[in-house]
Amino acid sequence: MTIGNLMRLLSDGEVHSGEQLGGSLGISRAAVWKQLKKLEAMGVELDAVKGRGYRLVQPLTPLDGARIVAHLPAAARRRLARLFVEDTLPSSNEYVRQRFGQGAGHGEVCFVELQTAGRGRRGRVWTTPWGQSLMLSVGWRFDSGVAALEGLSLAVGVVVSQVLEQHGARPQLKWPNDILLATPDGALAKLAGILVEVTGDAAGPCDVVIGMGMNLSLPPAMREAIGQPVAALADACPDIDRNALAADVVAGLLGMLVNFETHGFGAWQAAWNQRHAYAGQAVDVLVGNARSAAVAGEADAGGNLWVCEDGHDRRLAGGEISVRRRL
Predict the structure, then answer these.
(1) Which residues are annotated as a binding site for biotin?
(2) How would CATH label the architecture of 282-325?
(3) 181 three-state secondary structure
(4) What Cα–Cα distance (Å) separates residue 286 from each residue in 173, 309, 326?
(5) Residue 155: in which H helix or E strand, if any?
(6) Which residues does 301 contact at the CB level (< 8 Å), separation at least 6?
(7) How does pLDDT run across 37-72, given as a tens digit for each residue?
(8) Distance CA 217, CA 231 (A)
(9) pTM of the prediction?
């Protein structure tokens, strides 16, 4: 019995007795109770209905590999080598990296309902409740060196934003790896993060793993625990089809990847700048413990962000640099 099995039984939002759950899972009612407590500790909100059983406060749609593939257009199916949907993993990026180590990985996509050791840029932890996010990693092998990958994370942001726009959202982009969305109170906050990891020859073939984590819904208690503004797609699109969204993201990313090596970020540069959340605004540039005031400009064809500091233009080239709106 896995947490995933239990979540799929509860996913309809109906009340299920401990006896029913135990019978379906082949465990005792006491064991069911322990698993339900684990779910609550993981941020899943449960409603205990006296004398009847338990239900999810927020019904969810589990990811389904067959439904995702069925929703893909023909071109994306041809580019997709293999699709995995896992209940729990330490990290979907690590899973795809291991696939490369086994001689596979290229054109493979891994979705995961819950990551136990997921991380974002600069080692930050990325945590969401089971089934209430969209977490995936895509593997792609490039023949050119690392220099040909400049701006790749920004192109990913453009593609995902375009998909979200098709579903009715209006995201904005924060250099270099974040997708922002307005929260219910109007504040612009992080919706999704992107992490691109590269291994291989600096001047030759290299394996790339693109990871993305997006909040689809967030319980109020988890928003409060995060301690800073955070957005969820349900804020703008409450009735989104999770599997259809997953398929659209996969199709968009595979379509971009097959062309990126030839065209570079320049093909997505204008689209990124159109969605740039901080264009022309006062920002703080953070490099380690150092902070400087600047005005944000545009991203260039290499994916670098230009800013103006004390009347002088400066190019930010990623790495351990962060840009935040100046309050």
Answers:
(1) 91-93, 115, 119-121
(2) Roll (2.30)
(3) strand
(4) 18, 13, 11
(5) helix 152-166
(6) 151, 264, 265, 266, 269
(7) 988 887 788 999 988 999 998 878 999 999 999 999
(8) 8
(9) 0.92
pLDDT at 286: 93
Q: CA-based Rg of the chain, rounded to a whole angstrom?
A: 21
What gap in Å lies between CA 296 and CA 323, rounded to an integer?
9
Task: Verify cis geometry, omega within 30 degrees of 0, for the bond prior to 205.
Answer: no
CATH of 3-56, one of 3.30.565.10, 1.10.10.10, 2.60.40.10, 3.55.50.30: 1.10.10.10
Q: Please write the tens of the pLDDT for every residue from 282-314.
A: 999 999 889 999 999 999 999 999 999 999 999
Residues with a known catalytic role: 121, 190, 324
The model's pLDDT over 162-205, given as tens digits with 9 standing for 90+, comes to: 999 999 999 999 999 999 999 888 889 999 999 999 998 878 89
Among residues 154, 156, 152, 180, the alpha carbon closest in space to that of 273 is found at: 154
